[in-house]
Design goal:
six-stranded mixed sheet, 358 residues, Purple Acid Phosphatase, chain A, domain 2, alpha/beta, binds fe (ii) ion, globular
Length: 358
């Protein structure tokens, strides 16, 4: 180590200590210190992935320590990563900065590579789509928050969708982070009627460019597991809030692509709902069930939530929660554990998918 590197290390150590000395009750820090993000190293084989959503930067954030305790190889943000809800980009940046200065979150930043996608509140408008006038500027703010390197192709196109392929041959995980906001056609809302959103039978969630990208990613993939991240839920159809099924043809299009390309190990992960739940659906032409892990929220939930979901496995969780995926690579095909956990690492729900079984 040369003298410059030693000086840099001492400087970073000093910043770190300064930061911990200014901690507030919510974990938000008055420090302006910068954490150098961990490299997202796609050559690494993943066995432990943590994920979560719905996180108010000004609320207490008690789950980062239990998340770090699980020693994940990767953290995936699934949207409403902050509650920006603004067209003021300075206010949005300040909100992201508050989150990055949260000393509890900084424990994750120091220990775990981080990727992610947004939902409506960090995008900038509740239940918003392509009509949001600041979508381009907000996209850049999200990528800055996530420290996405300028070499990532996402910077060269519109929208926030990204893909990452981790691991050695035969143990590959492709993560496709879908952008369900930037290109989404308008949805019409109605009050006191079911469903709250009038189904849009001709519009799009992803937009044609993103769909082309998804298909190309699937067609050329040699991964054994494909994790699709979406802010809003993909499988559940019964609840009254935003979901892929507001655009049923888009949901079918995703299923059809999985069948067409015989995509192995497709798993959905989502947030948004302020509940945690696991859902499962058999698709004709796919030899394994599609399972969706919904984890929301990290700082606030719908307490005493109860709603119908005929695809649900087990029970709904209305406590603060994060999602956890553990992959066993020992067999011919992987075995995947999907879990919803809470404070102290408490296990609320779990489901195992063994891809060796037909
Ligand atoms: Fe949301």
């Amino acid at each position: 180590m040369n003298a410059n590197k030693i000086f840099l290390c001492l400087f970073m150590l000093l910043l770190t200590n300064l930061n911990y000395s200014c901690k507030s009750k919510t974990g938000a820090s008055a420090s302006t210190s910068t954490i150098v993000p961990l490299l997202v190293d796609e050559s690494k084989t993943l066995t432990r992935i943590a994920l979560g959503s719905c996180n108010r930067s000004d609320y207490e954030q008690p789950l980062w320590q239990p998340i770090v305790d699980e020693k994940p190889d990767l953290w995936i943000w699934l949207g409403d990563n902050i509650y920006g809800d603004t067209e003021d980009m300075k206010a949005l940046a300040a909100n992201y900065a508050l989150q990055k200065n949260n000393s509890e979150y900084q424990k994750l930043m120091r220990s775990t590579p981080i990727i992610g996608i947004w939902d409506d509140h960090d995008y900038g408008v509740n239940d918003g789509g392509k009509e949001y006038p600041k979508r381009s500027e907000s996209r850049d703010a999200m990528l800055d928050f996530l420290d996405v390197p300028k070499s990532n192709p996402v910077w060269q196109r519109d929208g926030g969708y990204q893909s990452y392929t981790f691991g050695e041959a035969g143990k590959k995980v492709k993560v496709l982070l879908l952008d369900a906001r930037y290109f989404r056609d308008r949805v019409e809302r109605r009050r006191k009627e079911y469903p709250q959103y009038i189904p849009n039978l001709t519009g799009t969630i992803l937009g044609e460019e993103q769909w082309k990208w998804v298909e190309e990613e699937l067609k050329t993939s040699d991964a054994q597991i494909h994790i699709f991240g979406s802010g809003i839920q993909i499988l559940p159809v019964q609840h009254n809030y935003e979901k892929w099924n507001t655009f049923p043809q888009e949901r079918d299009r995703l299923f059809n692509l999985l069948v067409k390309h015989q995509v192995p190990g497709a798993i959905f992960i989502s947030g948004d709902r302020h509940i945690g739940e696991l859902s499962k659906k058999e698709i004709e032409g796919l030899e394994y069930p599609l399972v969706e892990l919904t984890s929301s929220g990290l700082t606030h939930t719908y307490e005493n939530a109860s709603e119908e979901n005929n695809l649900r496995i087990g029970k709904l969780t209305d406590q603060l929660n994060f999602g956890f995926i553990e992959i066993d690579w020992k067999g011919d095909k992987p075995i995947v554990d999907l879990e919803i956990r809470g404070k102290g690492g408490k296990l609320f729900q779990a489901y195992k998918i063994d891809y060796n079984q037909k």
